[in-house]
From TrEMBL, chains A, B:
Species, as recorded: Kitasatospora purpeofusca
Protein name as catalogued: SCO4226 family nickel-binding protein
Amino acid sequence: MAKFMDVHHGMAGITEEQLRTAHRADLAIQADEGVTFEQAWADPESGHVYCLSEAPSKEAVQRIHERAGHPADEVHPVPLIV
Amino acid sequence: MAKFMDVHHGMAGITEEQLRTAHRADLAIQADEGVTFEQAWADPESGHVYCLSEAPSKEAVQRIHERAGHPADEVHPVPLIV
């Protein structure tokens, strides 16, 4: 298992309710791929959304996001944490 | 006070020790601007570093990073968190 930070672009105008709904859609199916989404942060102005997860691979993270209807634009392993 | 996610590009090859040293340089002066750096995640392969902070403004975050010798490429307020 490893930590991943994924980034969604183009989400300008996202509301708290939309972020919550999207996150819940991930949580509902994340176990299928052994992924745990831990937290998500959104900037409605620039349209960036950052998701932190623990997962077996970046592909596993992306598969959950795709099935939940919001594929990530970037998925980065972040093995270094302070 | 608000939450911010800032991003550094071009840090490919960064080591755990370098990340720790850079983070400590931020912590040492963050109080000057009322900033609290909470966590940082690095991907040595792509060279992305993500820093989460609480601060009075994005300019305050950037001033600390600049004085510490590693200006951010992006600083985003992230008012929505799940």
